[in-house]
Structures are given as structure tokens and as C-alpha cells.
Amino acid sequence: MANKRNNGEQRDRRATLEAMRREQKSSERRKNLMVVGGAGVLGLGLIAAVGIPTYLDYRDDPANRAVASYGVDAAAASCDEPVIEPATGVQEHVADGTTVTYGANPPAFGAHYAVPATFERSFYTPEDRPPVEQLVHNLEHGYTVLWYDPELAEADRSALSDLASSVREKMSDQVAGTKFIVAPWDAGTAEVAEGKRYVLAHWGAQQGARQACGDLSGAVVEDFVEAHPYTDSPEPNGI
Fold it and tell me: Lower CB density within 10 Å: C or N end of the chain?
């Protein structure tokens, strides 16, 4: 009887020990899953902490916006048909400080100062705009200039600055985009039809092109720039 009792006790101990081992293994698996899960959550958190701001910075960078996304649709911009006319003034330099009277103002071509505005700038305010006669030299080098009403509100000017960055970035693979400047016209000499606040201008090899609009339309700007590449200009290799 004693042997049977001892055998039963040994079986009970083995069963108890086996149950304890199973419970220990189960507990270890739960801990491992918690560690892995925690690491995964931490990893996702780190990715989000780095990735989301990076994405937001990319999304909000004006250079990454589509040009056509600025302003209103082309049909709503109240644009006149482009005016095309024979261009004059190739290499007709005047002394700095000279005021040139242009046939159409803001101009698309004509006499100009000997040195163009710097390539690095794509946007000017009424406070820092170089002389119109200097920007006309940029037109001779194939730039498109988007002249705007200097009385525009600050928010509208900010949108124009962003648009200038977008054109140079998004259209840089085309033969036009990098040579693009936005600048206010000279309020004292410009002659713009009532209700028009923007004038696109380009100096082609033989003809000048101007298009006046009442509202800003990135789609109109894009079409104009594509239609008038810098290669169609008197001095396309000029900076």
C-alpha cells in the first residue's frame, strides 16, 4: 500500500511540476509578445514622429504644389486674349537711372539697362523691385515676367511668391520654368485696363506677348509659360 501511495504522490508532483512549467512558458510567451508589441508601438511612434512632420513640410512647401493649383480656374480669371506684336529694342541699352517710355506698360520688350536682375530672385515686392528697365533685360534673355498690381493685399503677394517657387520647381524640366520672375509694375507709369491686376509678358525672338488678367490663375500662368519658352527670345543663353 505504501508503494502505491508513493507512486501516486510522485505522479501528482510530476503533474504539478509540468503544470508549473507550462504556466511559466505561457507567462514567458506573454512577456515576449508584450516586449515585441511595445517595441512595435515605439517603432511606429518614432516613424510617425519623424515621418509626419517631414510629410507635412513636403506638402506645405510651395515648390511642391502644382502650378495650376494657385488662384482660380482659367475660365474664372477674366483674362484678355494674349496680345502679340513685333518686338523692338534688342541690345538697346540705356544708362542706369534712365526712364524708358514703353509703348505698352508694363512692358514685354524695349530698351533696357545693361545688366539684368539676378537669376536667384524669382519674386519682388513693391519695396525691393529693381527698376522696370532692368527687368526688361531679363525679358530679353527669355524670362517670363508676371507683373502684378502693387496695390495687391499682402496675402495675395504671398500667394504670388509661392507661385513663383512652384513654377521654377515644377516646370524646371521644361524650356521655360526656371526663367520666371514675379514683380510689381510701376504704379506711376503702367497703363492697365480697369479690373486687370496681373500681366504676363514674354519677349520672343521676333514678337512680344502680353496677357492681362483680373484674377490670378496658375493654370493661365502655366499655359503662358509653356507657350513661350526661353529659347524663343533674342538672347536665350543670357542669365
Answer: N
Model confidence pLDDT, tens digit, residues 98-138:
999 999 999 999 999 999 999 999 999 999 999 999 999 99
**Which grid coordinates belong to 187?**
504704379
> Quick one: 128 and 169 in the same domain?
yes
For residue 145, how far is the Cα from the chain centroid? 17
Residues 73 and 187 in one domain: yes
Spell out the residues 6+ positions from residue 40 whose beta carbon is closer than 8 angstroms to its own.
none
Asked whether residue 100 is domain-assigned, the answer is: yes
**Residues 132 and 93 grouped into a single domain:** yes
| pLDDT, tens digit (0-9, with 9 covering 90-100), for 158-171 | 999 999 999 999 88
How deeply is 17 buried, as exposed, middle or buried, from its count of CB atoms within 10 A (0-12, 13-18, 19+)? Answer: exposed
Q: Is the dihedral of CA 48, 53, 57, 59 positive or negative?
A: positive
My answer on whether 171 and 104 are in the same domain is yes
For the chain, count helices (H), then strands (E). Answer: 4, 7
List the domain range (segments joined by +) for residue 190: 68-227
In this structure, what is the dihedral angle of CA atoms 122, 126, 127, 130, given to the nearest 10 degrees? 60
